[in-house]
Design brief:
Elements: E1 28-29, E2 35-42, E3 47-55, E4 65-67, E5 74-76
Antiparallel strand pairs: 1-4, 2-3, 4-5
The structure holds zinc ion.
Length: 85
Amino acid sequence: MATTPPEPLPHTTAAAPLCPACGNPVVQITASVEVQYQVMYESHKDELSVIGEQIGDGCWDDRAPATCPNCGWHGEAHALQPKAP
Ligand SMILES: [Zn+2]
């Protein structure tokens, strides 16, 4: 019976303070996602047409901009300091 419990959802009542300014448990992190397009040239339209797209994994690093919707704090993701409840 050595199963690992699933990660708690971020908006459960067990959420810990996260914003370094006001302790709000929810902050927004802005990250970018890489998209690869497959294109082909359609001579009858004289333009490139997108025939497929592949969206990469979205993730952020320590330098990603973070914002607290509660107090307006702006910083970088590494400044977030989750504390165990
Ligand atoms: Zn805050």
